[in-house]
Structures
1.
Amino acid sequence: MPERNPLDPEQGPIAPGGGYGAGMDLAASDADTLEYPESHGQEPGGPAGKPRSLWSDAWRDLRRNPVFIISVLIILFLVFISLWPGTIATQDPLQANLQKAQAGPEAGHPFGFDQQGRDVYTRVVYGARASVTVGVCATLGVVLLGSVLGGLAGFFGGWWDAILSRISDVFFGIPVVLGGLVFLSVVTNSTVWPVVGFMVLLGWPQIARIARGSVITARQNDYVQAARALGAGNSRMLLRHIAPNAVAPVIVVGTIALGTYIALEATLSYLGVGLKPPTVSWGIDISDASNQIRNAPHMLLWPAGALSLTVLAFIMLGDAVRDALDPKLR
Amino acid sequence: MATSVELSTEEGGTEGGPLLDVRNLHVEFRTREGVARAVNGVDYSVDAGETLAVLGESGSGKSVTAQAIMGILDSPPGFVTQGKIIFQGRDMLKLSGEERRKVRGARMAMIFQDALSSLNPVLNVGEQLGEMFTVHRGLSRKQARAKAVELMERVRIPAAKERVRSYPHQFSGGMRQRVMIAMAMALEPELIIADEPTTALDVTVQAQVMDLLADLQREYNMGLILITHDLGVVADVADKIAVMYAGRIVETSPVHDIYAKPAHPYTKGLLDSIPRLDQKGQELYAIKGLPPNLLHIPPGCAFNPRCPLAQDVCRTEVPPLYRVSRDRASACHFWKEVVGDDSAPADKA
């Protein structure tokens, strides 16, 4: 992560002591007022203005935002331990030592033991994998399905839009937890995929609505009309002119949703219909611990803390991304 | 009234006819409030190398006519209900959607009013210019970029090589409009429709952009339809003028005659409402009233509620286009009085 060093030459012409906002504004207004290209045939400061796209602007904003940096560090760490949990947890999350059941922290076991004498620290580390996998896969599925369906509905309108809107209303109407109890209670598969599938099934209307709305807004822009007047066909207009201008809200909502899907996985696992042992999941551990909250609070504390931190990190990331992509909301 | 020879558009076959021939075009918008008749029988034609200025207030149907010609009407709610748009001998309204798409950009192109909103903010100008070549000509991205630089030089954008990767918001208004013009010019179309190309620009930049457009038009011998509400812009560049009101053409004329002797009270009103140095200190003339609601166009001559010369006949009979001289026409029952009257605005009495 680049440091926010005010003297960093890479960060452009920023007056020392001036906030980056002030520096940027000055540079921009200079370029505007100094421009007499029409009459002088050349543009003062023209080449100095490096090409800046929406994305590179957003990136500039993001890398100066401490909320973004903190959340990204947490998330990178989570991703790391879910890929290689063995690097920081050398024990086996399934190894049970009943003699130590519910015992508190001791040397080599900083978080203590659970009901069956398994090491809580190891289980918390290994539990990240289930959470991150479910969160990432569910979000990808929801974003892909939702933005394709919603985007097409917004672009073409008419009967396709009408049918899709009604279908998404139906899925919206299903309470998530009730739906989970109904759909997932019949599943015996202990992998993450039934849970991911269920989340995609119930989650896509949220993204579809946002994608539809933002495609409708982008579609009305003059440049889409102009592209049409210059001979662009439907697919080109949609993919090249509308989609890049409509994708920002989808990214923002998708990032925040990732956190909520992780929480939802824990909720479903807690209720016994999400992931099932022997899969290691924070939700399952929280569920096991909840009966013992008075005797062994550490069993609840650590998985619940990890879950909260993870959800918080994704929601913070979503906030930061929203600020960067849509400065008007600030 | 004796010489009420209606201007007909019967002559002019497909071969050797004008570049673009719009005949009796009707466009309506079917809205929830009712049917808005935006264009009610427009006839005009443009030859190669010729500039037609279409003049009118907001809502007079000038832009809608242009959109119908381009085939980019939002449909629904907009529908062409009658008429022909003959371009290079083919009736555009009879082509399939795909055939029309191939005409757009390659054979006829359009320049929009606000270049900032007409350029895609997430693509740099090189990508947008190059797109013309990748879509229509199948060039590679690299070749297209080279073409884009060439185009930017052709519309006199300084430092084109460096600026080809810049984004629209990094250009000044005049430069953006040049990019727009370059995009429209890219495939050397035979016809360009410029919809108020200079309205969003500073006055000094306006003249430069108009000059550029006129130069390019001469160079490539294109037909140009210049849509504007600004009589000042038109005078230097247009060959002929069509004045529109409430979806109809009320006067057509070569450009210089119309300034000297307007033949329709509406045109006269427009001319009289231009501030002039020799009238300093006097109150500026304004046409009374408002343009008609297109849902309820008044019967007879649509201009009659605002017309100082209106008589009973104007409230009942739609005036045809009377031939004023060889190449002029006016849709006013009393065009003779209008042309003959050289004094101050007619309703001063």
Note: Residues 120-156 of chain A form the longest helix (37 residues).
2.
Amino acid sequence: MKYLDEFRNVETAQILSEKIHAITKHPWTIMEICGGQTHSIVKSGLEMLLPKEISIVHGPGCPVCVTPLEMIDKAILLAQIPNLIFTSFGDMLRVPGSSMDLLQCKANGADVRIVYSPLDAVKIAEKNPKKEIVFFAVGFETTAPANAMAVWQAKKLGLQNFSVLCSHVLVPPAMEAILSSPENHVQGFLAAGHVCSVMGFEEYFSMSKKYRIPIVVTGFEPVDILQGILMVIQQLEEGRCDVENQYARVVRKEGNSTAMEIISRVFEISSRTWRGIGEISQSGYQVKKEFLSFDAEKKFPLEGIQAQESKDCIAGEILRGIKKPYECKAFGTFCKPEHPLGAPMVSSEGACAAYFHFKRTG
Amino acid sequence: MNKKDSNSNQCALQSDQYDTITLAHGGGGKLTHQLIENVFQKHFSNQLLNMLHDGAIIQSQYERLAFSTDSYVVHPLKFPGGDIGSLAVNGTLNDLAMCGAKPVALSASFIIEEGMSLDELEEYVRSMKKSADADSVQIVTGDTKVVPRGKADRLFITTTGIGGIPKERNISPENIALGDAVILSGTIGDHGMAIMSVREGLEFELEISSDTASLCSLVETMFSVSQAIHVLRDPTRGGVASTLNELAESSQKGILIYECNIPVQSVTRAACEIFGFDPLYVANEGKLIAVVKSSEAEKILSAMKNHPLGKNAQIIGEVVDRHCKRVVMKTTIGGERVVDMISGEQLPRIC
């Protein structure tokens, strides 16, 4: 299949692996930002092709993992309102809230539906004028344009029964939070290709300069990731810290202006709490004032919901690349995909679930 | 459905009055009898069924019998490549075939939601008959229930089958030995993605068709060239990954598979990429996995390749002395990873 086979090709992967081995002289720690990259690395067994000196740590770029517990609780509360259809992307349904997940909520009788696009949720709202429809608008910059478009479309259609539970987060502030932490040991970043396809990568130049760190915009297939790693190591070994683009077949420096425009019409930047990490200033989107009637948090009484994370879960340290999943006492024992303590064990993009499914050796 | 005494003089008149199933069709009275006679008996007609006894009495030449049952609740009822009727017959025939059995007889039980059109029901019954005929097996007994609207999703079918196992065959996970070859009969994930595409209204340039098919004749072809077939499984729900994990667990051995040897149609692969699914976990309804003695593997494989249902068969892996009770895969780029049992359903990813 075009654009897939060539990026999963064993000969190309071997050539890149040999090049990486040839240039690596020192131990380096590299973080991939995006959960899609984590999934691909673990699923392809890519780390076996790297020299021992290279440590790959997994970043906070899994939208399911970083959506705060209280947002899940709010989603569950909304889903239980009579005559309300709660719509969501599929993998949010298994994320545990304080007392249950959305799948259990559905089994108990709530009308919870999986949609593949937020615009499908708008269609449901059009077809069900007597019901309230809420869409769980989560994700990074990648899903923001479509989510913004759904709100925009709903307003244009004059729908009064559609709203979004917005929990949007942004990648660069999270990278900055990792880099500015005294515990940080990340020496190079693979930036998230799809986020950059929307936003471009101009904002990474100042970060790279400030923290003296190489940042390579990278794709998602094994060959993309190996090439991204090679480019980061080249910089590190040569003592450079630049922003480079491995994913040039998709990403332009200036991003996608149409996508950015729709985001800026509907959303504005706000502080956000990241599950396992805490509040990061200016790290997310909220619905703009002009669209407040489409904001589920304003439309329904959801204030005062607070949630307590499990004390045994070290998701925060895993999401910041400080620890690996197998260093957690709960990993694979009382935290499993069937009974997750924290979100990284839920999504297939979460580092804990990826390790549990693909890397257990015991 | 095989109750006594249907009133054939009245049925044509009364059944003409209804073109949909009503609760009265399940009441055990005249309408029930008309439904049996004009739909089920009309198509399934055979000596045992026509006796309209409470059960069928079967004679068998076999010492060992295989006995299997399965319920079919597929939505939508009709999909590219098949429908609930063909699925219900093929599924149970396959369960028998996976025991090394030749099918002897089937039963069929129908739970019908009131309001279903009689024409549509008849279409599925016709499809069941066609699938059963293909393996020369008869549906010899059955049952019908009608439930109120909203109490079922239009039509549920349960089929049960009895098959006879020839003396020389011995199928059991206990027979799995180190070095055994793992053969897969064809492309994976087609049924699951066909259903998914119809449910979600996704269209591809090439339509994905379900692979629903009876594997009985393929299994007979395999046994005609070798008896060194240790285990047969059809990787339905949970896909190839779950089946291989069950085999690794029950045989207490490791299974190593090679990603590049696993056949996936490109359209199915594309659909899996769109949903974020791994084809290893997607359902199949006309594929089998055979664990066979390695020295016989090529012979069995070449016989399979000469059968229409095995033309894409491949040796996908082997039983190894490491990775105890686990399935490990050599990936296309030369890495290795565990192929785990799935925890729940695969859910479409956010991005």
Note: The mean pLDDT of chain A is 93.
